[in-house]
Amino acid sequence: MKKAMLSAAIIITVAAAVILIIAQFGKKSNELVGTWRYDEHTQYVFEKDGTGKLLADDVTYSYAYTVKGKKLILDFTEDIVRDCDYTFSVNGTALTLIGGTGTDGGSYKLNKE
Predict the structure, then answer these.
(1) Do 43 and 37 form a contact (C-beta atoms < 8 A)?
(2) Distance from C-alpha of 110 to C-alpha of 72, rounded to nearest angstrom
(3) Which residue among 10, 13, 16, 56 sits deepest, i.e. has the most Cβ atoms within 10 Å of its Cβ?
(4) Which ranges carry the DUF5640 domain (predicted)?
(5) Closest to 81 in 3D by CA, of 110, 106, 52, 48
(6) Contact between residue 72 and residue 55 where contact means Cβ atoms under 8 Å apart
């Protein structure tokens, strides 16, 4: 009886470890996390927790961001900045944003710092 219980405990422990390992491989890392520079005056910072900031000249605008597929949604804290969304793609250290709702519809290339 003790051998059966020990075997069951080992099997359950191994199964739990396998499930945790598989779950970790299934998670997609947030490729936006970090600082992205558009030009000498403009940077976007994306934090792991879904917050960020737009640095424009000497002014900082905070936002919360959401990623849905390839859509990036920015919800700015300050009402003076319009909330907006972009279609985005990351290729190594290059981020391309294509403007959607709340933007002028332009295409922007940013480089990771």
Answers:
(1) yes
(2) 14
(3) 56
(4) 30-110
(5) 52
(6) no
* Tokens describing residue 44: 């976007």
Instruction: Give whole-number Cα distances, 73 to 8, 42, 58, in Å.
Output: 48, 18, 24
- With H, G, I as helix, E, B as strand and everything else as coil, classify residue 24: helix
Q: For every one of its 113 residues, what pLDDT tens digit does the chain have, with 9 covering 90 and above?
A: 776 665 655 666 655 555 555 544 444 468 999 999 999 999 999 999 999 999 999 999 999 999 999 999 999 999 999 999 999 999 999 999 999 999 999 999 999 99
Position of tokens 């933007």?
A: 103
pTM: 0.73
Residue 55 and residue 41: Cα distance in Å, rounded?
8
How far is it, in rounded angstroms, from Cα 102 to Cα 47?
22
DSSP assigned state of 28:
P
